[in-house]
Amino acid sequence: MIVRTGNMRGVSLAIALAGIWMSAPVWAVDEDAYFSELPIVASVSRLPQRLADAPAAVTVVDRDMIKASGARDLNDIFRLVPGFQTYPNNTESARATYHGMGDGDYSSRVQVLIDGRSMYSPLFGGGVNWATLPVALEDIERIEVVRGTNAVSYGSNAFLGVVNIVTVDPALARGFSVSSSYGNQNVRDYGFRMGGKIGEAGDFRFTYKQQNDDGLTNRYDWIDSYFSRLFDVRADFVLSDRDSLQFNMGTVDGVTQNGRYKLQGGIWHENPENPMRQMRQSDTYAQVIWRRVFSADSDIQFRYSYVVDRSDDAFTIFGLHINQSGDEGMRHEFEAQHSFKIDSSIRVGWGGGWREDAMRSEWSLPGMGEVHRSIGRVFGNLEWRPSQWFTGNAGMALEDDSFAGMHFLPRVSSNFHVTPENTLRLGYSRAYHTGSTVDYRSQQRAFGVSYYSARPDLMATEGLDTLEAGYLGDWRDWRASLDVRIFSERIRNRLYKIDMDTSNPLIGLSTVPIQDVEIQGVEYQFKWQPFDTTRLALTQTFANISSDYLASALALSNSTLTTTKAIQIRELTERSMPSRSTSLLLIQKLPLGLEFSTAGYWQESMKWSTNTTAQRYRRFDMRLGYPFRSGGLAGEIALTVQSLNGAHNEYKGPNPDDTNPNPDGRIVERRQWVSLRLDF
């Protein structure tokens, strides 16, 4: 494994400090408060497991951490998860990636689930559009983040990890709640939530949320603004002492700005080739889940979901109608899973699913109408715990894609419980990642010139082999835990869009395998509650990415890879995640009922695109809240400040080699707002 010496010193120092803290005197503690920090997780093997028994590293972000972080957008929360990178919403949708590889407009290698429903869309490059995720932060109960591939349980989209968002049980959302936020950068947010009973057997929760802001500043040739509106309903029914039904439906739409200005004669004018316009996107969905419990160790569940995504940013140039994002994507998904216990030491979770994707676009799929893609899969996970000191996990899945063919996905893991408080984990897994519908079928042309030409004859699936070692320290007497993951992730046939023939404009771009990539490093998270009134969460990641071009890619005559562009693509790959990143969250209860929290983020430079660099930055956020109750009225007033330490760059910064006097920068400046919530 290749890790910088200085980075390893940082790891050693952090672990040494953890050891010193463990040697400190014991304060009087409320054990229930600490144990709530170590929940049972189900996102790894689809079996409820202790963290010490799970076959992968998991970060759990609970409701208190979400509120304390001061996050206003969902993707911001992942700054608290080791190995993740993100940036604010702007003229381009935010991304949240794990271990880099975040090329393209939408992250496509981390599976994102909301109450079991995948957020992957055939419309958005087979990825996730963070601008239209249909969930309000206030409705999230917890987020389970599987750090590392979990294709065994969730398919090829879970190539590098899984984000599983679990929303609040409607039975806990009683009465009415209204909220509003008002701040600089035109922050104007409004929310409404109502919950109650449906007859004797049901509970419901309805949420409306509206967000608005003027986005990032330091605009040279672009305008940034964002508006979104969410309607969400969840209803749960107890049908019998064995059967339950969950129903979700809703819609979210978002509006951002597209287009550019052009500098002429020292004055910025609207660019006629890329005029300013609104980009409208939406996500509409419905889902139903039926569950039957046979015993404490056995149940079966059936889930069906339907999702429609739409996007539009039409404009006219030289009399030609252009609508690059004027698309529609649809998905039907059916899934069944069954868990049971064979004997006192063996549990099994298995099932299968079928998904039908459809997409139509006159820009990306001209003249093709509705293009369909079907994916079927079966999966199984087994947990074997023959003794108190050992837990073994084995899993496998078989996935058949009508575009990409069939793949076998295995995983094995051994957890050694050296003591009740200390566990070592060793694991291996294999995963595959496929291209999008556009990658396999598109034939785009503009002004008589090819823009993108799918080449299924050259397409290959990305492969991933992961070796990892982990340590989990669960020091309950000290109300602290330490989770360390050492990883080696080898990606074969990394897919990338390149110009197939730079000398012939009729050929255009195609997605082809170009690289083998290796990601090596170590990450850890440390949580500690030294007092009832104080919580700390520290994470760090140290990583190194190396890559080699495939001989088959270099042999493509006159392609991008035969020019200096190949150097930029390699740099993008190897700097797609920072070599070091750190986050620290402090939650502190103060006298007079005040609640204070602050979060700090330190990140080395990285690249989100080939021609720009996200510079090294430090960022500090702060939140001060006052919960109150008077008779039948309760609520909270709070002040939140993001980027307390001032302006910095997180997404696109000026390229060091760029001589343009007005580089395409994205500057994150201080943002503050006051929020008020009233509960009736």
Which CATH class applies here?
Mainly Beta
Number of domains: 1
> CATH fold name, please?
Maltoporin, Chain A
> Which residues form runs of ≥5 with pLDDT under 50?
1-37, 658-662
Q: How helical, in percent, are the residues? A: under 10%
Please give the alpha-carbon distance between the first and last residues: 56 Å
Largest sheet: 22 strands, antiparallel, barrel
Number of helices: 7
- Care to count the β-strands? 39
Structure summary:
The protein is mainly beta and 680 residues long.
What characteristics describe this protein?
Maltoporin, Chain A; mainly beta; five-stranded mixed sheet; 7 helices; 22-stranded antiparallel beta barrel
Task: Map the helices and strands.
Blueprint: H1 5-22, H2 31-35, E1 57-62, H3 63-69, E2 84-86, E3 96-98, E4 110-114, E5 117-118, E6 140-147, H4 151-154, E7 161-167, E8 175-183, E9 188-198, E10 202-213, E11 226-238, E12 243-258, E13 261-264, E14 267-270, E15 277-295, E16 298-312, E17 315-317, E18 320-322, E19 327-343, E20 346-361, E21 371-387, E22 390-401, E23 405-419, E24 422-433, H5 437-441, E25 443-446, E26 449-453, E27 462-475, E28 480-499, E29 509-531, E30 534-549, H6 551-554, H7 565-574, E31 580-589, E32 595-603, E33 606-609, E34 612-614, E35 617-630, E36 633-642, E37 648-649, E38 667-668, E39 671-679
Parallel strand pairs: 4-7
Antiparallel strand pairs: 1-6, 2-3, 4-5, 6-7, 8-9, 8-39, 9-10, 10-11, 11-12, 12-15, 13-14, 15-16, 16-19, 17-18, 19-20, 20-21, 21-22, 22-23, 23-24, 24-27, 25-26, 27-28, 28-29, 29-30, 30-31, 31-32, 32-35, 33-34, 35-36, 36-39, 37-38
